[in-house]
Structure formats: C-alpha cells, structure tokens
Design goal:
The chain has six helices and eight strands, in the order βββαβαβαβαβαβα. It starts with a strand and ends with a helix. By secondary structure, the chain is α/β, with parallel strands linked by helices.
Length: about 220
Amino acid sequence: MPAVALRGPAGLLVARHDSPEVAPPARGPRAAVVCHPHPLYGGTLDNKVVAAVARTLRERGLHVLRFNFRGAGGSEGQHADGAGEVDDVCAAVERLVELAGPLAAGPGALLLAGYSFGSYVALTAGLSDARVGALLAIAPPVNFYDYSAIARMDKPLEVVYSAGDEIVSAALVERWLATCARPPRVTAIRGTGHLFHGKVHEVRAAVEAYLVALATAG
C-alpha cells in the first residue's frame, strides 16, 4: 500500500493506494475510495475498519484509495465540519481515476465507502458523480448529520451498522433506512458497538456479499 501524492483543496493529503490482488470484476465497480471516521476523535486511514474494508475490496479486484482528511494524520489544512471534507473526497476520486486508469473512468465504475463520519462525506460526494455506481455506509451517524439527500438518491447502497451502537442507536439508523427511496442492502451486526470490536470480520463479510451482489445484478 504505497503512499501516493494527493492534493486536496486545502493542501497535500496523506494517501495510500491499495492495488487489486486479482483481476477486476466483469461487472460492478472497479475502484473505490474508503473514508475514515471523524478526525477530531482519532480517525485516520489506518483505522481497523477502514483497513479491513480496503483489504476486502482489493481482494475482490478493486483499486482502493484511502487518505487522511484535511488536518488529520499529517494532512495539510484544518477540519472543516464535513463540507470541506466532501471536497477532499472529490479530489480523492480524481486521483483514484488517474491511478486505476480507464477501467475506473466510466459511468458506474467507482464505489465510495465510509465509516461513521466518513460515510456522510463519502456518500454526499457520490450523489451527483455519474462515475460512482455504488455506495457503502458503515455505522452512519444519522443523528449528527443530515442524510436526507442521501435517502432520496437512486444509487445502490449497502448499510452496515451495529445493533448495539452506543453512539448512533440502531433505532435511529432503522428509522432513516425506512425513508430511503431505493431500499438499501442492510447488514445489522450484533454483539458489538460503534467500533465493531470483535466483529470486523462480519463487516468484511458484508462488504464481500455486497460486491458479489453488484457483480451479479441484473
């Protein structure tokens, strides 16, 4: 996972590119950006959930770009309450397309994924980009950010959440899921909390199942 240059609107961002371990899928996304949780609470690209998701994606043949948001983990700039971080994701998408090449440049070729805070900025960045054909939200903090525009979109979405989440209650996530115009794929993981201690392998299994579903969708 070599370091790569990524210039965002607020300056240079620390980034890593995970190359695919197998041939790309015949259908579905061929490259992905994975976004980390809230930087003011220690979130970086090395977060265990983010790293596990990236590993799953590259094992399924996707190029993966992870990066530290502005002001986090050596990246230049300052935290911008989500709005600036959306711009960071857009810059990461452009860099990913450069790294992955033509396979990642067409409509529907990209997947944007995020954990907690990262899900809000990733999904928001992917709403209007035709190259983004799939979205993945892990532990979306629907009680802290406005997910209403995301609920109105018509792109495939997988939502993975903890039934025992102590930060974002399952009831709130489920209430938001009921508002989605296009019903997402949903995986509720039991016996853990917001950090998915002891259950990261179940997160990985959910991501892999989602990729299989995208590759076989009619």
